[in-house]
Amino acid sequence: MTLITNHMPTAELQALDAAHHMHPFTHGDALAQKGARIITRAHGVTLTDSDGNEMLDAMGGLWCVNIGYGRDELAEAAARQMRELPFYNTFFQTSHVPAIALAAKLAELAPGDLNHVFFAGSGSEANDTNIRMVRTYWAQMGEPERNVIISRKNAYHGSSVGSGSLGGMAGMHAQGGMPIPDIHHIDQPYWYGEGGDTDPEAFGIERARQLEAKIEELGAHRVAAFIAEPVQGAGGVIVPPDSYWPEIQRICDEHGILLIADEVICGFGRTGNWFGSQTYSIRPDIMTIAKGLSSGYAPIGGSIVSDEIAKVMNACEFSHGYTYSGHPVSCAVALENLRILEEEEIVTRVAQETAPYLKEKWQTLAAHPMVGEAQIKGMMGALALTPHKDSRAKFASKPGTVGYICRERCFDNNLVMRHVGDRMIISPPLVIKKDEIDTLIERAWVSLDQAEKLTRDDGLMQAAA
Ligand code: PXG
Q1: Whose CA is nearest to atom 17 of ligand 1?
Q2: How far is Cα 229 from Cα 260, in angstroms, rounded to an integer?
Q3: Can you say how many angstroms the Cα of residue 131 is from the centroid of all Cα atoms in its chain?
Q4: Cis amide bond preceding 179, omega within 30
Q5: Strands 46-49 and 39-43, how do they pair?
Q6: Given the CA of residue 160, which atom of ligand 1 is nearest to it?
Q7: Are 398 and 389 in contact (CB under 8 A)?
Q8: Which of 127, 189, 326, 347 sits between 20 and 30 A of 460, alpha carbons compared?
Q9: How far, in Å, from the CA of 349 to the mean position of ligand 1?
Q10: CATH of the domain at 377
Q11: Which neighbouring-strand residues pair with 272?
Q12: What is the pTM of this model?
């Protein structure tokens, strides 16, 4: 058996990591100098690193470990499936039981007439599928000129060329020739950062109407679809005003534009319902799924599409697919994950107990002198750091400078909380218990206090002009 070398001292692992391992979204030289933190084990909501530190993982891995770490049932489902049928493809008129069972289960769980699943290996791949699917759908409908997809600035839809183009991350578009043609971006519904003196609900309508203006500018006959996350995750947990989604839905309906809800983060209980679309009464034509589908135990993603889209797509051969579309081991793991979410009533418990408790505690952090707002929806939350609460001011320093200071304090206090610019964000496992939420809040408060002091000492408590 090949041993994984986690018996080595941390420094040796870090040296090997720096020598051979290229990390996503990471400045390699800076990391090599510091040394990566090496995670060796996890259970429940707790991570252990190679030095034996135990940390509360308030990010659920990367927004994905919904059922928590260490569930043997998933390991057993994977082992069973590997022994029985480790791989077979779903191309060329073949199928297998795990893919069939998972597709049927997803059709049962998904709202409305979303009854058909195209599998992928990740959220990025699924969104690439969506780009080609909606364009092919309209071509099949006799409207091949409808190839524009409208998305939003600061959206995250993945990191492949297609999905990264859908996303609205300026830093990503600056590298590697993105975005691809015919993707347009409107502004995000981020009231705290961009709403100024406008009332939040009026601002929500204003930002939604940018979609209508964009459709009119481009011509409705050219627009295939609008894509958005119900709550933006990687953009910094941007919870839209309540007025936003009903207006978006109206605009898509009136102009006959397909609506793609990217549920990669919001799906599988994160917002207190099975899907974020249910939380916001969105009626999508396509949902992108990944992450919580398998609680991250195995890589899998997909697109769940409506009866209408499936009918049109099934009338042609869609020249598209991945070797690992419907990978049997990933499907078996996902099925077991969904069984646990359902039988242990985890989503219901989130809605009725944990999310309300987390909200109450999270909002106490708004009293901290450096916190401008404490936003939360279900089990995803954000703190906007500010040098001046009342004016919602940004820091004069480069965005992310103070956020990074705070993140480092969190890590040293055994709390994994991420920063997006100067917003601190959480997305803990859905199974987090009340006493663990108390610990999360205590560690966050201590980290904020320390970060505030460091920010002052470094002369960074300055508002941008
Ligand atoms: N859509 C959404 C809404 C996502 O959040 C993807 C698609 C792409 O999924 P894959 O499986 O291809 O990564 C995501 C992924 C972060 C971070 O820093 C967020 C994601 C991935 C990596 C980092 O918050 N989200």
Answers
A1: 234
A2: 9
A3: 18
A4: yes
A5: antiparallel
A6: 12
A7: no
A8: 189
A9: 25
A10: 3.90.1150.10
A11: none
A12: 0.98
Last residue within a domain, chosen from 311, 343, 375: 343
Distance 87 CA to ligand 1 centre (A): 25
Residues 248 and 139 occupy one common structural domain: yes
292, 327, 313, 229: CA torsion to nearest 10: 20
Flag whether 303 is in a domain: yes
- CA-nearest residue, atom 20 of ligand 1: 234
pLDDT tens track for 152-164: 999 999 999 999 9
What is the extent of the structural domain holding 65? Answer: 37-70+345-457
pLDDT tens track for 76-97? 999 999 999 999 999 999 999 9
CA of 454 to the centre of ligand 1 (A): 31
**Ligand 1 atom closest to residue 232's alpha carbon, by position in its atom list:** 3
Q: What gap in Å lies between CA 318 and CA 301, rounded to an integer?
A: 18
Q: What is the pLDDT of residues 327-364, one digit of tens each?
A: 999 999 999 999 999 999 999 999 999 999 999 999 99
Ligand 1 — pocket residues by CB below 6 A? 62, 122-124, 127, 156-158, 229, 233-234, 262, 264-265, 288, 290, 301
Q: Are residues 122 and 215 in the same domain?
A: yes
Q: How many domains does the chain have?
A: 2
Concatenated DSSP letters of 112-166: TTEEEEEEESSHHHHHHHHHHHHHHHHHHTT-TT--EEEEETT----SSHHHHHH
> Which of 435, 305, 444, 291 has the alpha carbon at shortest distance from 368?
444
Q: Could you tell me the distance, in angstroms and rounded to a whole number, from the CA of residue 159 to the centre of ligand 1?
A: 8
* Dist. CA 264 → ligand 1 center (Å): 7
User: Residue length, the chain?
Assistant: 465
Residue 32 lies in a domain: no
* Whether 83 and 49 share a structural domain: no
| Distance (Å, whole) CA 458 – CA 406 | 13
465 C-alpha vs ligand 1 centroid, how far in Å?
Answer: 33
Closest Cα partner for 118 from 310, 336, 333, 274?
310
Please indicate, yes or no, whether residues 187 and 112 belong to a single structural domain of this protein: yes
The protein residue with its alpha carbon nearest to ligand 1, atom 18, reads: 234
Q: At 292, which CATH number?
A: 3.40.640.10
Whether 79 and 195 map to the same domain: the answer is: yes
Residue whose structure tokens are 């006493």: 435
Measured by CA distance, the residue closest to atom 9 of ligand 1 is 123
Contact 288, 239 (CB under 8 A): no
Q: What's CA 203's distance to the chain center, in Å?
A: 24
